[in-house]
Design brief:
Blueprint (H helix, E strand, L loop, with lengths): L15 H9 L8 H14 L4 H14 L5 H5 L3 H7 L9 H16 L3 H6 L16 H12 L7 H10 L13 H14 L5
Length: 195
């Protein structure tokens, strides 16, 4: 426990790493295509695992996957996958590791990847409780799968939308809610969406 008195979302466990992620990253709008790709890949890696597991392995994944570089991952081979499967600092799941390569190739093939994924952000949201998926995340999932992406189901896509700041699901009582809402509104307005 960190012992600070900040009121956070109920899902934050009290772990210092988790709290830092919540307080500084989660829900802050990200528009850089490379950073968006990294976030989407991390969400796919989480499938069936806790987010804290991903946070604990994230720096090693960044190191091994060269910051989730699309161009480098797109050129990776089965030999790379075999090597990654021996690294205990990574998520050692062949399907997820293979998807990194496939997804990097698909992202590079899509012009304006960042603008494309942001086109699925809802123009407004009214949630009393964060959903598992939405109409928008389902549409994103369908489009990504059609483009050749894997590990991008509607729930993964909604978690990606949350982490990338396309939606603000900080609890209204959370100290980050107001600031993140302001940032989300600004990001949507810059894209010509009435927030």
């Amino acid at each position: 426990m960190t012992g600070d008195a900040k009121r956070r979302c109920s899902w934050v466990s009290g772990d210092a790493l988790y709290e830092h992620y919540h307080d500084t990253e989660w829900g802050v709008p990200e528009t850089d295509p490379s950073a968006l790709f990294r976030l989407l890949m991390l969400e796919g890696m989480q499938a069936g695992l806790s987010w804290l597991t991903i946070l604990r392995k994230r720096s090693r994944m960044d190191e091994q996957f060269q910051g989730f570089s699309m161009t480098r991952l797109a050129r990776a081979s089965n030999r790379d996958i075999d090597h990654w499967l021996t690294d205990t600092g990574l998520i050692r799941h062949r399907g997820k590791l293979t998807a990194l390569i496939t997804n990097a190739q698909a992202a590079l093939a899509h012009p304006n990847f960042g603008k494309w994924v942001w086109s699925f952000a809802p123009s407004h949201q009214i949630h009393t409780q964060a959903p598992s998926f939405t109409e928008e995340s389902t549409a994103m999932s369908k489009a990504l799968k059609s483009a050749g992406f894997r590990f991008v189901g509607p729930t993964i896509c909604y978690a990606f939308m949350q982490s990338a700041g396309m939606v603000n699901d900080h609890a209204r009582t959370c100290f980050r809610h107001g600031e993140c809402q302001r940032l989300v509104d600004q990001a949507l307005a810059r894209r010509g969406v009435n927030a």
